[in-house]
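Need the bound structure for adenosine monophosphate, inputs here:
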Amino acid sequence: MTQSFAELGLAAELVRAVAEEGYTVPTPVQAQSIPFILAGRDVLAGAQTGTGKTAGFTLPMLQLLSRHAHHGGRHAVRALVLTPTRELAAQVEESVRTYGRHMTLRSTLVYGGVGFQAQADALKHGVDVLVATPGRLLDHAGQKTVNLSHVEILVLDEADRMLDMGFIHDIRKVLALLPKRRQNLLFSATFSDEIRQLAGGLLNDPAYVQVAPPNAESALVTQRIHPVDQGRKRALLAHLVRTGDWHQVLVFTRTKHGANRLAEQLCKDGIEATAIHGNKSQNARTRALADFKSGELRVLVATDLAARGLDIEQLPHVVNYELPNVPEQYVHRIGRTGRAGVTGEALSLVSPDEYPYLADIEKLLRRKLEREVVPGFEPGSVPPSGEAQPQPRGPAPRPQGRPRGATAPQRTARQPRRDQPRPERIRDARPAPRPAHEQRASGGDAERQPASNATALFPSSGAVYGHGGRADQRGARPASRERRREVPALLGGATRRGS
Ligand code: AMP
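Answer from helper R.:
Posting the output first, comments after.
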């Protein structure tokens, strides 16, 4: 039986905030974890990006914190969320603000590579929620600009990625700074021996939560790269739409301006297109979405943020007009197609200046994506292609703009396919994370690069919400699959246990 957010025991302020986000029904991980967390239990959850896990821990955490006011201790933190990357930290903190908008709780964000002092200032009078990456958090602890001795709730988000990134020692140092009595929530997509060990030492009589079993649907997305020169992208897109007889295609651009311009140009080319982004009124966006769903509008051009909450059941075609500079975003984007058992196609128009982004994406996916040069749109140079090489564990240097690996077949023929998508949330995270390529250059503490973070992005569940990540599982290494299989064993095969 499907429960509502209110039936899960959430307070009216939170129910209102999720309704404003356009969420009508809790996702499985939310339905399972929220009651346990509200009951004060430790929780071990097997859930990956795209399942709605962030709201799964954020909503009950906010409710527990709202039960009494901040004690106002200098530098004190009441709930600490540790994440592996800046991007995730920023996303989680944005969620805290979004879901907590009708409450008066304070939150802030701490990660490396950006100024220290502003973060120290934000921590000065204490916060209810601190979202942090481990290295910078330890810097603050060392400088006594944060006090972790009053933490009531600890969340380890994407714990497997944190371990893959070599954060175990930092995590242990952070744990040593926390009070003994606290509530612990551990979210992980996969369960290695290391995670079990960490969970064993951390969690006290945990309730187990696991989202739906593996679902073959997530392999239904065909991904392809079309190498093309920047100046020919629009013509190629128009060509693909026409020759493929596409009637519903979501196109991603990196900027609002780019989205507007592309939509205008497509209209001039005779292809009905509209841009949606944060500068457009809610009415305009609702109308565009309705037209898109009804088939009146062939192409919807969107920025990542605008596309987040798009409520469309199935989407046959997703096109990356520009590759995102944060590789995880690619996975979020392509997760918009291939839903509900219907096949989908995710194509990326990649110009030579974007090859480094492509290399980053393929590194995350641990495989090479198929290249297909469309006749008549041959670029000056083609991105290197081949079989993905498994990445070694531990921090790895960023590839110098060229992926590793041998040569993969180049296709020149294309096989158009037909088939079909979700409200929007637009809210700025405060200090914007720097683009991935800048972060990598910085090296250092919390910004160490994931060398093998793909496990978290090869979901074991087919249910993917919003911008959720879903990658083609075919490329996952056997090790990842084995680790996934361990989850039910760890969780006793049950989807829900405990009181
Ligand atoms: P997460 O797995 O936490 O990264 O969430 C993935 C996406 O799902 C985010 O874009 C959320 O905004 C969205 N989301 C979270 N909960 C729900 C829900 N109950 N219904 C629809 N979308 C949701």
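Comments: The domain at 6-210 is CATH 3.40.50.300 (Rossmann fold). DSSP finds 17 helices and 15 strands in the chain.
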